[in-house]
């Protein structure tokens, strides 16, 4: 959640439509039942997860048979690391992948999530070894993000650098911002 919240001030102009969508859909508190009616909110959450992914590499795997990858033989028993950061930044489905653009997750009507793009967004990994807490995490991200955007405007007090700081997890350099309560 820290990496998620740290992205808000840097993308404030892109998250304001979420606030307007929340004002229209939700009265006081968002519920999971509101989620289908909030496609832009969902798109922003997916884009923050893609753009500001905090887990650069997944755990090790070992292939059980020889495999060819782009003409290169990977022999049986080789330890393989999935570099999730690279997948989320370099997949051709993400046009201009280094730009923060929630609209990439919406179809032309602006109301329907583009499932082809969503399926390529894998911040929780994929397959048998994906994150067991993914459902709970997605629910919490939606509810907490919606509540924060509804109640506060995140205003940076200085220029924000969202260049990832590499380590076991990716973080953003420290910065400060002001949280301005939204009018009720």
TrEMBL record:
Whose protein is this, by species?
Caenorhabditis brenneri
Q: Which molecular function term from Gene Ontology is one that the record holds?
A: iron ion binding
Q: Where does heme bind?
A: 131
Extract the PANTHER family matched here. CYTOCHROME P450 FAMILY
Q: Which family does it belong to?
A: Belongs to the cytochrome P450 family.
UniProtKB keywords: Heme, Iron, Metal-binding, Monooxygenase, Oxidoreductase
Q: Which cofactor does it need?
A: heme
Q: Which Pfam families match?
A: p450 (PF00067)
Q: Which InterPro entries match?
A: Cyt_P450 (IPR001128), Cyt_P450_CS (IPR017972), Cyt_P450_E_grp-I (IPR002401), Cyt_P450_sf (IPR036396)
Stated name of the protein: Uncharacterized protein
């Amino acid at each position: 959640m820290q990496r998620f919240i740290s992205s808000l001030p840097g993308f404030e102009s892109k998250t304001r439509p979420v606030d307007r969508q929340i004002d229209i859909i939700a009265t006081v508190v968002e519920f999971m039942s509101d989620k289908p009616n909030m496609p832009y909110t969902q798109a922003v959450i997916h884009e923050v997860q893609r753009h500001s992914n905090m887990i650069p590499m997944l755990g090790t795997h070992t292939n059980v048979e020889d495999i060819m990858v782009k003409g290169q033989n990977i022999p049986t028993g080789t330890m393989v690391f999935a570099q999730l950061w690279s997948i989320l930044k370099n997949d051709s489905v993400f046009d201009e992948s280094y730009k923060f653009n929630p609209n990439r997750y919406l179809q032309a009507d602006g109301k329907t999530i583009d499932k082809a793009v969503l399926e390529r967004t894998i911040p929780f990994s994929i397959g048998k070894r994906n994150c067991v807490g993914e459902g709970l995490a997605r629910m919490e991200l939606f509810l907490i993000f919606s509540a924060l955007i509804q109640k506060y405007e995140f205003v940076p007090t200085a220029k924000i650098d969202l260049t990832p700081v590499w380590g076991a997890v990716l973080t953003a350099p420290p910065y400060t911002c002001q949280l301005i309560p939204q009018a009720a």
